[in-house]
Amino acid sequence: MVIGLIGGSGSGKSEVANVLKEDFGAYIITADKIGHDVIKRGTKSYERLVEFFGDDIIGYDREIDRTILGKKAFSSESNRAALNTMTRPYIGEEILRIIREQKEMDENKVIVVDAEGLVEANMTYFLDEVWSVYAPIEIRKRRLIENRGFTVEKIDSIINNQSNEEYYKMNSCFQIVNDSTVDNIKKQINNRWSFGGKQ
Questions:
Q1: Those residues with Cβ within 8 angstroms of residue 61's Cβ, 6 or more apart along the chain or in another chain
Q2: How distant, in Å, are the alpha carbons of 47, 104, 132, 160, 174 from that of 168?
Q3: CATH 3.40.50.300: does it fit domain 33-109?
């Protein structure tokens, strides 16, 4: 069973993924980590990004400076679309490779893909189910400030460039409300596993 986890920044996808790993034995694939790897020096994505956005996105270590890239990419819709075109196909390929590898090791393993933009990137075809994670906007903002040290301006920029909560809910078959405790997350997953999820 392959489950895709979607939801906006600060909704707590990583926390839900950790519960699925620790309590349900799931194998977690984190798209953000893969996204870091596919733009490393020497990759196809690296070459395409530098050619499009310019040499000034390269840091002192000759790797792409993600902060500079982010500022350029999110300065316009066309730049954002270019970034997605130059990274998402490679991220998708790597996710598929890992899924195949894990299934070969254990065909009954539950695999969870933690990726906010799965639906937008048309990467749901290899999933059995899509779950969304929801938290009220104020809780999301507080988490991003406390856990990641983001400024209010950065948070607003990120959230404004992501899909809204209704979109995530409409494009998932199950929604986890992550606004309180880890035990509450476990309870919701247990209910799904018992009534319609993995038997």
A1: none
A2: 32, 31, 6, 14, 10
A3: yes
Radius of gyration of the chain (CA): 17
Per the CB < 8 A criterion, the answer to whether 26 and 126 are in contact is: no
Q: 179: which residues sit within 8 A by CB, 6+ positions away?
A: 134, 135, 136, 139
C-alpha span between 80 and 96 (Å, rounded):
24
Return d(Cα 24, Cα 121) in angstroms, integer.
27
**CATH number of the domain located at residue range(s) 1-26+110-193 in this protein:** 3.40.50.300
Integer Cα distance of 54 and 13 in angstroms? 33
> How many other CB atoms are there within 10 angstroms of residue 158's CB atom?
19
pLDDT (0 to 100) of residue 157: 83
Domain residue spans in the chain?
1-26+110-193, 33-109
> Strand order in 174-177's β-sheet?
27-30, 111-114, 2-6, 129-134, 174-177
- CB atoms inside a 10 Å sphere around CB 100: 11
pTM for this model (two decimals): 0.88
pLDDT at 193: 81
